[in-house]
Amino acid sequence: TCREFRNAASIMGNSALHKKMETASNAIKRDIVFAASLYVTGI
């Protein structure tokens, strides 16, 4: 999960990956990632 990757990145000292996983986790929690799937175009 994003949380596990975020924790692993923090342990390894990779702050860039930690930030990316935190952003992804927050986007998923707010359903931003899935918003585009609600609108199907080109059919």
What would you note in describing this structure?
It is a single chain. This protein is mostly helical. The protein has one domain (2-38). The protein contains three helices and no strands. Helix 1 (2-12) packs antiparallel against helix 2. The radius of gyration is 14 Å and the shape is elongated. The termini are far apart. The mean pLDDT is 78.
DSSP helix count?
Answer: 3
Largest sheet: none
Q: How many DSSP-defined strands?
A: 0
Mean pLDDT: 78
Structural class, from helix and strand content? Answer: mainly alpha
End-to-end gap: 32 Å
The level of helicity is 55-70%
Count of spatially separate domains: 1
Range of strand content: under 5%
Order of helices and strands: HHH
Topology:
Layout: H1 2-12, H2 15-29, H3 32-35
Helix pairs in contact: 1-2
Structural descriptors:
43 residues, mainly alpha, elongated
Short account of what is shown:
The chain is mainly α and 43 residues long. It contains three helices and no strands. Helix 1 (2-12) runs antiparallel to helix 2.
